[in-house]
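step 3/5: co-fold with zinc ion
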Amino acid sequence: MDSGMTPNLRVDGDRLWSSLMTLAQIGATARGGCNRQALTDEDKAGRDLFKQWAEAAGCTVTVDEVGNIFAARAGTNPAAAPVLMGSHLDTQPTGGRFDGVYGVMAGLEVVRVLEDHGIHLERTVEVASWTNEEGCRFVPAMLGSGVVAGTYTREFAYERQDKSGRRFGAELERIGYRGTTAAKPRPFRAMFEAHIEQGPILETSATTIGVVTGIQGAYWLDVTLEGVPCHAGPTPMEMRRDPWRAAAPIIESAFEIAKAHAPWARATIGDLKVSPGSRNTVPERLIIAVDLRHPDRDVLAKMLMNFRERVAQHAARANIGARVEEVWHMPATTFDAELVGIIDRAAGDLGYSRMRMVSGAGHDSLHTAQFAPTAMIFVPCAGGLSHNEAESAQPSDLAAGANVLLHAVLEVAST
Ligand SMILES: [Zn+2]
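step 4/5: write tokens
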């Protein structure tokens, strides 16, 4: 390969856009979105189209035991670990046209450009579409990549059921995507996932490329506060053991902790259960659903510790029983520093505005980072809107993200 020709290489933005729009017709909703939930007939049609396009672009397509698709364009050195790109083709029931699909189509576009120019890189380049990323039909999310990473077993995946009792394994079989390749890690030189941001930061700051350094870790906590129920009228204020007296400062302390670790910390009070929930009774019990997030695992651990201390302190002051239960934990993911640097440099060389940022949402990259050096490329989406039929992105931004992907891949797959 003539290395002199690659700096000027660009993706075909029109072809990328047209592929996205063609795929968006599969499961298209009346309000301009997409409903292509995992392992439905629509998902099968989307997979079939991707497979057909990938084969036409010179790829060999394999499917693993949990339906993850890998479209590989062979490199000149079969012994060298491949470079992986990709994301997911499934959507939410009222999903958009870009979440996930963009990462797969951007990967396909990179392969198509290589094919157009007859460029054979040293390393094999693969485009992955991970099964059931959304987790709306089969819980949990990011299941296909999670099995490969060893977070879940293959059997656990097969046994997942949707609301009507249909099993993941049977549905995979039904749509013809229960493959034979083991759903296990292989050596990869790199994994790149391009994705719309799903938040407002890039658009608000008029930045084209988000160089993603990691994914926020999260703790889901249930804080239970126990008081003594009593009549709202006859019981003097000072004689009450009212869980609200602890709840109010505890909730405020969650926000204070997030503020103390700005700009990336998040604290959300998503739900609150009051029992017995009667206007003229001091509650016996409050259960507060808390979500704490931060991209640095040490900071997140510190936030959790601080929050636990504040709960104990405010409960003691109000003479209220309290316990904090960890319902779910997603560890913070730090992406590969070398790949993050390569993306940053590629975006700069291409003349795009860029900023380093963390992902607030989970992605398959969270799992691939466990077995392959991984990094992500974000592009803006209108109003930061995602998981919404109105999800929208500019063709020029989508092309820019794919160009960054192309040049990151050229760099790591050429040696
Ligand atoms: Zn996604």
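step 5/5: annotate
The mean pLDDT is 96.
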